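Troubleshooting log. The previous run stalled partway through. Resubmitting the same two chains, unchanged.
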Amino acid sequence: MTHAVAEPPATRPPGPDERLARQSPLRRLLGRPELGALLGAIALFAFFSLVADSFLQTDSFSTVLYASSTFGIMAVGVSLLMIGGEFDLSAGVMVTSAALIAALTAYQFTLNVWAGVVISLVLTLGLGMVNGLLYVRTRLPSFIITLATFFMLAGLNLGVTKALTGNVASDSVRDMDGFDSARTVFASDVDVLGVNVKVTVFWWLLFVAVATWILLRARVGNWIFAAGGAAGSARAVGVPVDRVKIGLFMGVAFCAWFSGMHLVFAFATVQSGEGVGNEFLYIICAVIGGCLLTGGYGSAIGAAIGAFIFGMTNKGIVYAEWNPDWFRFFLGAMLLIATVVNLIVRRRVERSS
Amino acid sequence: MTEKTSGAAAPLLRLTGVGKNYGNVIALRDVSLEASEGEVTCVLGDNGAGKSTLIKVVAGLHRHDTGTYEVQGEKVAFGSPRDALDRGIATVYQDLAVVPLMPVWRNFFLGSEKRKRFAVMDVEFMRETTHREMAAMGIDLRDVNQPIGTLSGGERQCVAIARAVYFGAKALVLDEPTAALGVKQAGVVLRYVVQARERGLAVIFITHNPHHAYPVGDRFLILNRGQSIGYHAKNDITRDELTALMAGGSELEELAHELDTTAAGTAAAKELRKETLNP
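Second attempt completed without errors. Output:
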């Protein structure tokens, strides 16, 4: 190499760069997407502990955890999709669809309920794939596409259930083969150190762990961040952006399937009109947890903390003996506060780095 | 759709009479270009001259409509950037170089992640390699975990260039790497262009600045309104001629456009256009 080229710097001693000394661990923590949510969760926990005497009892804690887990499981899929830069407004009713598919097929064909579970898994993943394919083929905003599928699914849930059962709810599958074993998997509970914990809590933690591992350590995690952060740049270096996005819609569908199975085996019958509006709650969990609406930034752990905040507020208002009609007001206010805090934290970190 | 053509020492890349239409808009018409190992081929032209379209054809983002595109003597028609990358053609885009919110090391290995067993990414290896490769290019990063958006524009381009070189690119296509940069930063990037050439890469360097192109270029293709208005080796064109060709072309064009708006000026504009196309 005869041309003048910038000299490589003299080999540095191993260890952290000396110019990093000024970055304190606190600042490093401030850069994490989960931080705003974590502070909010601590503040809210302290708040409800003070105003609601029964909030700190173990029974209450297990109720809060259960509420958190049912929304947290969906928030896992929804947060990954949001990091990938897309929305899914059909997520709420898709849970009901998944539950209805399992309950109706098992009952109508008098199958073992596990057959219904498997059929539901295949069909629900198919629904997610339809969302993804529609997005990839049309390039319409996912907001519009999933808004359309949301209404279509809501109509199908009601229409098909009424046509088959003459009722707005599916017939009970409680006495059918396999119900007990399926209930053990999807809707049982265990005592842990005197606290009654629903099995959904463990599944929730498992899903969060898997999603976090995918995001931070798997190749596809890199692709998810890139697809949401700058799809054009990602495509230019050979990332299969379309396949990643279809996969993310199917990930939401998988979570919807799991939540649906919990509904079936917790209550044995499924109300076909349920689920409407929940999609916004999942998005709120993800956003409180630090996911950017524009994609490319966020974490599954953040979404889990967001779901915990949701669970605490949902049940805390009851324990504080306030009128639960106010719940939605608090939810909206929290969303606003969380996003503003996230914004301020991120701006401060960006300016100082 | 590949097919061998004869020719002992075919250049790494050869475009012959390539054209590209977007609907009824002809973005590129009958452009020919060669790029060989250890050479820098500069593509010059003002905004809207068709530089970006040409690059997108070379990089595999668009498929050409007419003409032939050969890689090492084989005719190709790429369906995606991945196809081009597999052939060793890496492209660094002005606006599509990196994902700003992602750490430097994730950007460096994006699309070609190094994996251990069971699809686990080898994060340590990727962090160290990124640091080492950037240091080898003279950029000593404080922290490869910082979002690449916090780097300067020149450094971002350099990460993208270092990435292409590291992954064994045979041809490097640079889309206006110096366009948004200050004088000093542009100088840094130009040094990497030379370094890539010294490493034996075929470099295609797109720019609208003849002062950036002339010092590093071996061949110059000048585009205007989607057509080639000159293709010269370095020894048959001087810097001043190149500048005149570039500047003259664009200035006369601008003048002709202004004259076009008045009825009386139309004839004069036609004359000027003729001159622009046949300098």
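Takeaways: Chain A has one domain: 40-47+56-342. Residues 1-22 of chain A have pLDDT under 50 and may be disordered.
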